[in-house]
Recover the amino acids of this structure.
């Protein structure tokens, strides 16, 4: 019997038996045990032995370090093994299906990485004379053209560094438009559906607005009756921040009416574009009446996701907001491409500067490479395949799990915890899924669904991989429905067992303290 047909043991007895195995080395099979680098290395050891330079004088002006930094020294093999072993403890999109809903953990084609490392893109500096980076500016302009074409919007701000930064950009453009109308003091209320992304209300407040929540209906979409009631006195309406497709993985079927009503009330329509991967090439947000929408390049056009690194969240703007886009932005004239850097002349209506420079070159290159390699038809197919994969997962699992809403979903499948036995929580399902070799899905979000489990497979997963994931989750779900108490102790097979995550967040141990001589003697 092959490994694929045999599967992994998942019954409580087998799981406990495997978790009880101990080894002298501390390793488990091919998973190597690894201590902290401070415990492994030695301050008096180094993998590189360099002679002290002769005939040189210190240029540190008398601030030379008087004592050792006590950084751990390792040989080259030790250093390589340390970080390789740590990497094996992380889950990654290159390792397996990454089911996080609302995050769109896409595969990053290696072609994108190769192009991003070309010298003309990777070796330039933002302070170079603009005449020496004409190719880079043209690339930014070409990417902007693609974004405007795909969204049906006339303008785009390229400088936002992330999705929330793009939200801030869009809402600041709305704020600037209200100032130009002389209504910034009176129009202070922003409507935010309960199914919107959590950063939306935070961004509205940060921009000086008050948030008024709109209820969700039984279909997981905007409750139009509640929405219309919010507009009965529209004199203070600044706009709406709506996510579409929303965080329930559903398309807002009343989107055109919502746009018309908010415009008739004198407000602007901000759309959270985090889920653009579900509709790119199929629907242009500009045709839906959207005034501003950020685009997470990593969620739709496959730039690296997460890790605190350089992100990018360009924000497209309608004709009503185009003049208020922040500086800098790229323009082309008879002398070639150049950046408008100041809030005067062509940039006199801009709401200001959002970032020090004009964007994230590496992210731009990767996104444009993805667009050019796929073409318009390929982008459309990617969206269709993402929706198909999500609906396949929903169809596979609906007999053992409880879909949050009836009917088809868009790019992500949402389940509630209604199928679980008393005492078993969503967290237990997530931890048990780790033992099956998968990163858990998004849990407890969106808040409109009790015990929510949000799964987004993206477009690149094969049917075989989807089946493999569904088999594992189905097994875990059946155990949850049966009230399997062993799930409360999962994970059993991970490098670390279940932790007190609240304590870890509130009181993190961020500093390594060397053991005292007494501790060493006791050992």
């Amino acid at each position: 019997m092959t490994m694929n047909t045999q599967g992994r043991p998942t019954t409580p007895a087998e799981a406990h038996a495997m978790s009880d195995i101990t080894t002298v080395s501390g390793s488990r099979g091919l998973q190597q045990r690894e201590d902290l680098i401070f415990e492994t290395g030695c301050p008096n050891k180094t993998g590189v032995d360099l002679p002290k330079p002769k005939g040189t004088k210190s240029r540190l002006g008398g601030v030379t370090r008087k004592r050792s930094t006590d950084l751990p020294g390792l040989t080259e093999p030790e250093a390589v093994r340390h970080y390789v072993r740590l990497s094996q403890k992380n889950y990654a999109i290159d390792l397996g299906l990454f089911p996080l809903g609302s995050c769109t953990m896409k595969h990053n084609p290696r072609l994108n990485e190769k192009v991003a490392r070309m010298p003309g893109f990777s070796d330039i500096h933002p302070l170079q004379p603009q005449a020496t980076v004409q190719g880079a500016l043209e690339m930014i302009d070409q990417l902007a053209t693609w974004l405007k074409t795909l969204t049906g919007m006339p303008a785009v701000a390229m400088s936002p560094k992330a999705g929330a930064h793009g939200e801030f950009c869009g809402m600041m453009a709305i704020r600037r438009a209200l100032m130009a109308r002389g209504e910034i003091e009176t129009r202070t209320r922003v409507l935010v559906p309960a199914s919107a992304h959590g950063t939306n209300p935070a961004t509205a407040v940060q921009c000086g607005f008050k948030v008024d929540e709109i209820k969700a209906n039984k279909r997981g979409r905007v409750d139009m009756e509640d929405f219309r009631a919010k507009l009965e006195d529209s004199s203070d309406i600044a706009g709406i921040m709506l996510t579409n497709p929303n965080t329930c993985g559903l398309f807002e079927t009343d989107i055109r009416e919502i746009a018309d009503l908010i415009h008739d009330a004198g407000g602007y329509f901000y759309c959270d574009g985090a889920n653009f991967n579900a509709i790119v090439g199929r629907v242009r947000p500009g045709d839906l009446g959207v005034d501003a929408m950020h685009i997470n390049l990593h969620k739709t056009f496959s730039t690296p996701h997460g890790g605190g690194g350089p992100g990018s969240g360009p924000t497209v703007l309608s004709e009503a907001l185009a003049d208020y886009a922040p500086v800098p932005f790229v323009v082309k004239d008879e002398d070639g491409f150049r950046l408008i850097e100041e809030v005067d002349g062509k940039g006199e209506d801009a709401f200001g500067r959002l970032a020090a420079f004009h964007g994230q070159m590496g992210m731009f290159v990767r996104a444009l490479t993805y667009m050019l390699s796929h073409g318009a038809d390929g982008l459309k197919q990617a969206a269709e395949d993402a929706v198909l994969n999500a609906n396949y997962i929903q169809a596979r699992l609906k007999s053992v799990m409880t879909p949050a809403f009836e009917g088809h979903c868009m790019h992500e499948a949402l389940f509630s915890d209604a199928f679980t036995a008393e005492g078993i929580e969503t967290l237990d399902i997530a931890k048990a899924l780790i033992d099956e070799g998968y990163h858990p899905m998004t849990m407890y979000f969106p808040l409109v669904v009790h015990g929510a489990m949000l799964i987004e497979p993206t477009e690149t997963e094969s049917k075989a991989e989807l089946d493999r994931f569904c088999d594992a989750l189905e097994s875990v779900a059946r155990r949850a429905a049966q009230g399997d108490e062993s799930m409360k102790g999962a994970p059993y097979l991970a490098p670390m067992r279940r932790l007190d995550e609240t304590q870890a967040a509130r009181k993190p141990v961020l500093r390594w303290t060397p053991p005292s001589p007494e501790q060493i003697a006791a050992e």
